[in-house]
Structure formats: C-alpha cells, structure tokens
C-alpha cells in the first residue's frame, strides 16, 4: 500500500503523489491472481493510527482479498 495515491490512501508513512489509484491496483491484482501463482503477500507502510475512519483498512483488506483464490 506504500505506492497507492496518497489522496485515496492517507494512512501511510511515505505518501506518494500521483501514485496508482485503488481501481487500477484492483485490476492489476485480479490479473495477477488469474495469471500467476501467488505464494506470499506483504502489506507495508500502512499506519493504523493515522486511519481514523478505517478507509485505508477497508481498502487494504479489499485489495488483498483480490489476490486470494
């Protein structure tokens, strides 16, 4: 999540301007799930203390779920 556009995902330690948006990442993750064997997933730089409205948590869980069979 450390490369998601900071406007969509503000609860990260190292915000990225003009990074990919969540729908773009979701498309990529669906493609990876359908074309690759995924053996590990790592979520980095998400800062729950900055996620007061749990928007980032919800987005993160949704994206990760796209990689699962």
Overview of the structural elements:
This protein is an all-alpha fold. It has helices spanning 22-35, 55-67.
Give a nutshell description of this structure:
The chain has 2 helices and no strands.
What brief labels describe this structure?
single chain; 69 residues; mainly alpha; 39% helix
Please describe the topology of this protein:
Layout: H1 22-35, H2 55-67
Helix pairs in contact: 1-2
Strand % is under 5%
CA distance, first residue to last residue? 20 Å
Low-confidence stretches: none
Mean pLDDT: 87
Structural class: mainly alpha
Instruction: Write down how many β-strands occur, each being a DSSP E stretch of 2 or more residues.
Output: 0
Helix content: 25-40%
């Amino acid at each position: 999540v450390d490369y998601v556009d900071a406007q969509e995902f503000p609860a990260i330690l190292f915000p990225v301007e003009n990074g990919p948006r969540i729908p773009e990442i979701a498309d990529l993750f669906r493609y990876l799930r359908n074309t690759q064997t995924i053996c590990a997933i790592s979520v980095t730089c998400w800062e729950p203390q900055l996620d007061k409205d749990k928007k980032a948590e919800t987005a993160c869980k949704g994206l990760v779920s796209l990689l699962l069979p």
